[in-house]
Every structure is written in structure tokens, then in C-alpha cells.
Amino acid sequence: MPIVSATQGTESENTVPDHLPAEIADAVSAMGYKVRCNIGCSEFKVDIGIVDPKNEKEYLLGILLDGRNNSRCSNVRDRFVLQPSVLSGLGWNIIRIWTLDWLDDRERVLKNIKTAIENISQKEEVKPFSFANIQFEKEEPSASAAAAKPYINAPIIIRGTAEAFYLPQNKAAVKRAAEEIISVEAPISRKQLMKKVLTEWSITRSGSKVESIFADAVSGISANTTADSDRMFYWRNDQDPDNYEGYRVDDSECGKRSMDDIASQEIINAVTEVLREQISLSETDLIRETAKKFGYSRIGGVIESSVEYSVRSGILKGKLIKAENGNIVLSE
Predict the structure, then answer these.
(1) Is the whole-model pTM more than 0.90?
(2) Other C-beta atoms within 10 Å of 264: how many?
(3) How far apart are CA 273 and CA 293, in angstroms?
(4) Three-state DSSP class for 31?
């Protein structure tokens, strides 16, 4: 059943004047409440959020206007049916304010807002004739939901010279170096693993002979491996790639991993966190927000292709869904 105002039986075709959100926010502020505007990054934004005075990280009430954010939803079903079904259980209480209602009798609208706040504060059921009660996205996820972990770098141990690396008798030492790095940094890409091993022999450039020696040394390593397209990743034997949790954020002092050095399982976990926060995003916005999770403020070809691959993998595994409007959502 569509969610509508008691005084507005059908969706208004009017758009909210640019000044109106600020005007309503100022009026609510004058009632003694702290407000924030344009909350969230998904297509389902809250135009005005009334902050809980007992906990400024939470909101008592969200206000939706029949304006720009509302028109971003692709159709009436998305605006009035999909929102509450997708967002149920995430803690927002919402009222809609229609432009004509505000222009006709702003005092009555403000009275309805105040009544809604008081009812929520008293944990009473909201009266259906004054506003609709639905669940909506929150601006900030709870700390317990965060999946980010610090990336731990294995200590660099100088094991020999570049010349010593080529000696057959050092094959076991090369293998041992790789195993020690895997034990700390798995999942780790083969490219990143080789780079770190070569650093321990003071080798700054790779070549066919270096590649051959490294490949021979690590061929007998006891470790799980996965492949993301043409990228191989090493995992510790006690790690299950299919049930890997969280994602790791590099210490800025140690530099960031290239996105193609991050296993798709990690990227999917970051994607999942983004979608729990934002609910529904276009693939372009999802790539950008996922990159931010790993500390990248700009996206390039490597970032884009790595996240795209992970999203496709998530869809194939049934973790993600591509909606009819092209946006990506969680399958949960």
C-alpha cells in the first residue's frame, strides 16, 4: 500500500523549491531541535534528520520532501513500496511533508512534527493519520558493524644479496621467506608476495630468471590458493576463502596495496558494508564508495576493474543482486 500523507492522496507532481528544505529545517531548529540535512549517499536520502538530544549519533525522526531526492527514485513503486520493504528494521521513523501542505498551513505541519517527536520519545505508537512510520537508512553504521581491520605487514628481513638469490642452495630460504610472509599477510597476491620476497634479497626489478627462481621456490608451499581472473592469491591453510570475514586497511605509513593486490573476498566484504550503509547504489557509486573503504579518494582503471570483478563475483555467488533500475543491492 503506498505511503501517503493524510492530506495528500496521490503523489505530488510539484517539486520542492530550493529554499524549502532549509526553511523547514530552520523552523524545526527554532522548536529547539538539532537538525541535519540531505543525509545518506544512496538514492533513498533523508531530506531532514532530527537529532536525538540524548545521542547525537542517532536520529529521532527523518523528514522526506516531495523534491529532488524523492524524484531520484526511478518510479512510484521504488518511492513508496521498495523503500520500506528494503529498509525495514534499520531504525528510522519517517514522516512525509508535501510542499502544498507546508505552503497552506506551516503551523499545522510543525505541530504534526512535534507530535511525532513526542510520541517517538515516549515510545508510543505513531498515529497513522499524521504520518507514516517506516524504517529508513541511517547516516552512520554502528561501530559493531564495521568490518575494517588494520593490515599487518610482515617484518622485512634481509636474507642475502641479489647475487645470492640466484644460487640453488638458497631455494629453501626463498621458500621460507614466502611462507613467513604468507603466515602474516594472507590473503596476499602472488605479485605482492614476490615483491616482498625480492625486497629481502635487495632485488628491485623482476625478470624472467627471477620469476623462474621464485616460481620454483614457492611451488612446494603448503597454502591454499584462489584466482581472481588472472590474479593468484595465497591463503593460510587455516583460512577459508568462502567464509572470509572483514577487509583490511593499510597503514598509510606503509603505503596502500594496489586494488588488484586485494582478494575479491576482501573487496566483497567492503562492498557489503557499503551497501548495508547505503542500501542501493549504482555500480559507479558503489566502486567509488568501496574504494574509500580502502583509503582511495580517487578511482582509476585498476580500482574500477578490481571492484567490478568482485561485484560480478558477488552476483554470481548470490551475495549481491542487480536491481531492475541497474543499482546493486544486497541479497539479504
Answers:
(1) no
(2) 26
(3) 9
(4) coil
The set of residues, in sequence order, having a beta carbon less than 8 Å from that of 105 and lying 6+ positions away, is: none
Q: Which three cell numbers stand for residue 13?
A: 507532481
Q: Using an 8 Å Cβ cutoff, are 11 and 66 in contact?
A: yes
Beta bridge partners of 226: 233
d(CA 165, CA 227): 27
Angle at alpha carbon of residue 67, lines to 66 and 69, rounded to 5°: 110
| Cell numbers representing residue 46 in the block | 533523508
Cβ neighbours for 21, distance < 8 A, ≥ 6 positions apart? 37, 38, 47, 48, 65, 67
**Whether residue 187 has a cis bond before it, omega within 30° of 0:** yes
What is the H or E stretch that residue 50 is in?
A: strand 46-52
Max Cα separation, the chain?
88
What order do you get walking across the sheet with 35-39 strand by strand?
35-39, 46-52, 55-65, 94-97
- The residue among 19, 20, 25 whose CA lies nearest residue 39 is 25
227, burial (CB in 10 Å: exposed 0-12, middle 13-18, buried 19+):
exposed
Helix or strand run (H / E) with residue 216: helix 208-218
- Tell me the helix, strand and coil percentages in the chain, rounded to 5: 45, 15, 40
Q: What backbone torsions phi and psi does residue 256 show, to the nearest 5 degrees?
A: -95, 145
Rounded Cα distance, 184 and 252, in Å: 18
Q: Residue 142 corresponds to which amino acid?
A: S
- What the block records as the C-alpha cell of 263 is 582478494
Predicted pLDDT of residue 170: 94
Residue 208 Cα distances to 34, 178, 212, 213, 214, angstroms: 64, 19, 6, 9, 10
Give the cell for residue 242.
568462502
pLDDT tens string 30-76 = 999 899 888 765 556 778 888 888 887 777 888 878 755 454 444 44
DSSP string, 33-49: --EEEEE-SSSS-EEEE
Distance (Å, whole) CA 222 – CA 236: 8
Mean pLDDT of the chain, nearest integer: 79
In sequence order, what are the beta bridge partners of 50?
35, 61
